[in-house]
Protein 1
Amino acid sequence: MLEEDEMLDQDCLFCKIIQKKIPAELVFEDDQTLVFKDIYPKASIHLLVIPKKHVSGVTDPHSLVEINAIWSTINKVTEKLAIKDKGFRLVINSGHDGRQEVNHLHFHILAGERLKVL
Ligand code: AMP
Ligand code: ZN
């Protein structure tokens, strides 16, 4: 197990949420992942799923190591919120053109209504 300071980036907003230095509305937490409400929701349910280890995004090779845990968490959370059967959308923004604002891997879960066609 890595020490906390090897796993986290002290300048990263989501690492600060992991360390509870910045408050967030947590929905789910386990050893490897955290789920919290997006502060500017784009749908009636808008959650962010992140690994507890700092990984800069989907193009970071270390993101592969985290994906099983993230997938498992998405399944647990959508079940818990009763949106697994109704449906939901997963979004990952990557890089400048993809408008990624926070450089810590995160999946957006959008749900709670019938979403617009992309
Ligand atoms: P992205 O553009 O994919 O990097 O998404 C970053 C998301 O983080 C945006 O949807 C923001 O609304 C959200 N966000 C920024 N600051 C916070 C915060 N303190 N707590 C929760 N969500 C946040
Ligand atoms: Zn981070």
Protein 2
Amino acid sequence: MSRFWSPLVQDLKPYVPGEQPRIEGLVKLNTNESPFGPSPRAMAAISAAADDNLRLYPDPQAVALRETLAAYHGVSPAQVFVGNGSDEVLAHAFAALLRHEAPLLFPDISYSFYPVYCRLFGIEHVTVPLNAGMAIELADYRQPAGAIILPNPNAPTGVALSRARIAALLGEHPDIPVVIDEAYVDFGADTAIPLIAKYDNLLVVRTFSKSRALAGLRVGYALGHPSLIQALTRVKDSFNSYPLGRPAQAGAIASVLDEGYFRETLAAITATRARMVEGLTALGFETLPSSANFVFTRHPNHSGAALAAALRERAILVRRWDAPRIGDWLRITVGTGEQTEKLLTALTETLNA
Ligand code: PMP
């Protein structure tokens, strides 16, 4: 603390991202990055964008990228917002749409950035417990609310809601904004995008960081009714007019246009996830049904802390939280087939030790 800090800063509880250590041979399964590189076409577009034009500001409205995303998802460019990673898009959504008299609702076990934004923006919130099966129970959202935000699939559980369930939620809450954070949706959940034509209160937030293997480029986006997009744009233009540089805009466009590479890498990750769950089950782990590029798992006879420490000694990083209800669970990113075999071997040795 310093006497120069504003009261706001003194009161913040910043988000702590998963570590990014530089250890030789590390099997890094802690931050849900893709084990594959980005689309080669995206890399070529990023390199090509590193030219003399970098002296010029990028397009502040990222029109070409928004048009590409609109065409890909079958919406209009006025229904697309882009930002510097979906964390920034979410931050703008919290400021623009989620602060109301009544509290914001989100699951008790969910993306741990949500309460951080609430604190930053002074948003009252109520957390709604997941049910005994660690799933979102829509009936529990029938309570006074100013807005709702849910990841689908949820993080860190990986458990998804069907599109019909999301539609039911929207039908029950027609008069408040509902944000669905689809960071992991491409790995096997239903997208809510087709619902935006019917529900003007729905904002869908997405990222290039996971299924498009571009976490280092920082590109996220949101889709929704033009009036919701306008609200986000008003906040963005009150904060940073140029959130996406030229290489980011060019790389993101090329990634969207490379559908073949996208499908191929998704298929590899979902196949490895099945192998990982099978291996974990054989070792006695209980794993939640995952629609994401990670699994949430626990062992009945070993604490999460002990397992995470044992893996770390073998240069395998996974993520866990010292938090109520989930302290014994590990969130493990689905890596390559080879990384998965290393993980299963390390766990086998640990359990036999
Ligand atoms: N939403 C969820 C649920 C996430 O897990 C993450 C990644 N930490 C994000 C959003 C943000 O991802 P990014 O800012 O890289 O787009």
